[in-house]
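Q: Could you fold this chain for me?
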Amino acid sequence: MVAVCDRVRVRADVIAERFGVAAYSDMDNFLARKDIDAVAVLTPSGLHPAHVIACAKAGKHVVVEKPMALRLQDADDMIRACDQAGVKMFIVKQNRFNVPVVKAREALDAGRFGKLILGTVRVRWCRDQAYYDQDDWRGTWAYDGGVLTNQASHHVDMLEWFFGDVVSVHARAATALANIETEDTAVATLKFRNGALGIIEATTAARPTDLEGSLSILGEKGTVEISGFAVNQIRHWRFVDELPSDKDVVKKFSVNPPNVYGFGHQAYYHHVVDCLENQRAALVDGLEGRKSLELISALYESIETGEEVALRFTPRLSRLGVVS
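A: Sure. Below is the predicted structure, expressed as structure tokens.
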């Protein structure tokens, strides 16, 4: 890390002092540095497109937090800008690097689940009004979205990563407790191309503390549930073709992170460095990040229309990313 940029200079100064790097409040001056190879974009989601495109035009690789954008057109513009500049774009989906999730994915790749039947993700977290009030962009349609785009984005990605392409969705949402424009609670059912079904349950209205961040995978030959508050604890691991090593999986591959962000970020950034140094493909590049954005866009369309929505490249309706 060589520099940090924030439009609020005092914030940049705090981080810069902590890590012993330069601070900037002007992005053009920041990007003009020749010693910057890659930029981590950690700004409000609605600002990602402009910032990513600026980084690409400056010849910098980009690591961008989820969701990559709020509108599919913006995502396409970001992908195009990075391709034209010859730089890589990495979308942060660190839950794919959680130790229990990696173990479950190994079982999937080995065919141990057989035919996939049902996948469920649950996000039952506590985000009180003070959380939303700390920044004026939180919980807005233009710059943030709701629990689906912000907190549950990682879990939606995991569901697609394990079960594949989604054919259609039907969703409902409510703003149960938070004083925000968007939803703080949502549920959805999904149909996958492989015939499996899926369930999404997401809320920031759990009180008084975070309860659960989980993934369940049910197949004809096995069932796995990863729970805890950060998809960090293997609660159930059973397969028809039981292996001697299965008896130690729950204890060996469960972890205890200090918060809901888990330990995946460190592994993710190691992955980024490896890709850049060794010319490897990103696990979650722009196109992969776009897939989960397309699914989230369809969820919002279903919420707004009350109808089942088939996934396609351009949703008919969504307030996400629209500045009023």
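A (continued): The domain at 3-92 is CATH 3.40.50.720 (Rossmann fold).
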